[in-house]
Specification:
six-stranded mixed β-sheet, about 45% strand
Length: about 150
């Protein structure tokens, strides 16, 4: 894991640090940018429940197929804000706001998006068990007050 990826996320961290989850967020970011299907397969739970920006529920198999085929390519990923809430030793929620440029079916989509991911450790391995990604206001990411 390149330390620069972790440093970029730690630089935008709001609230308490959770080194384990920050590293996982850096890993999934790097895997998305590289379209590294092997790493994504390792980081995503088989029974993933993930809502995309269109409101549809997506599966792990669908996500991996999009990256594998090149139908989706994340070209730019600039983290703006990361918050982590540890629920217990084996569950954490990460909220990451980032500016993205994503090539979807040959068209470029640019914007600010917020990922909410539920990380769960099952049989000693951390994976994304659920989450959501949606558009965020362009000025989001650092300016929003604590809830």
């Amino acid at each position: 894991m390149p330390r620069a990826d972790v440093a970029e996320l730690r630089a935008v961290l709001v609230g308490p640090d959770d080194p384990e989850i920050v590293e996982l967020e850096a890993e999934i970011r790097a895997a998305q940018l590289a379209a590294d299907v092997t790493a994504l397969d390792r980081l995503i739970a088989d029974e993933l429940l993930f809502t995309g920006p269109d409101g549809k529920l997506g599966t792990k198999a669908e996500d991996l197929a999009l990256h594998r085929s090149g139908a989706v390519r994340i070209r730019e990923h600039q983290p703006l804000e990361l918050r982590v809430r540890r629920i217990g030793p084996d569950v954490a929620i990460a909220a990451l706001c980032a500016r993205l440029a994503v090539e979807v079916g040959g068209s470029m989509v640019r914007g600010t998006f917020r990922y909410t991911r539920v990380w769960a450790r099952e049989q000693g391995v951390w994976r994304v068990a659920g989450g959501h990604v949606g558009a965020a206001p362009a000025d989001d990411g650092g300016g929003s007050p604590e809830p």
